[in-house]
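Lecture notes, unit on protein representations.

Consider one protein chain, 127 amino acids long.
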Amino acid sequence: MAVRKRQRAAGRSVGRETPSFTVKVEDLVIVYRWLERQHVAESYCQVFFDSVFAINFLDIFVLVSSDRGLTIETPEKSQEKATIMIPITRGTQIGRATSMPAFAAEHRVTELGRPPPGRAPCTAAPT
């Protein structure tokens, strides 16, 4: 919240018309090298509350080279690292949550008296 207040005070725009894929510029080279070596399709996914959107990694390069419909920001909350903001409308909605997941708390202790690592969602709602 304090960051947004400073941005507004400095006269910078703080809102976007649509949510966006956030792609770190420094990650582009790393992912591209991996893609060249592994020959496997790579996608960026972004989750917004109840919807999941995806965009093919190579499509990001096409968008960057066309310089249309995206912005590059250096947000303070990301240590001012250059970040490409691509509107989710350039991607595809690949999923939507239709119901809330059900979780149940369970107290377990290992033989050494420690809690076991991780928890898994249950398949049925708790009763």
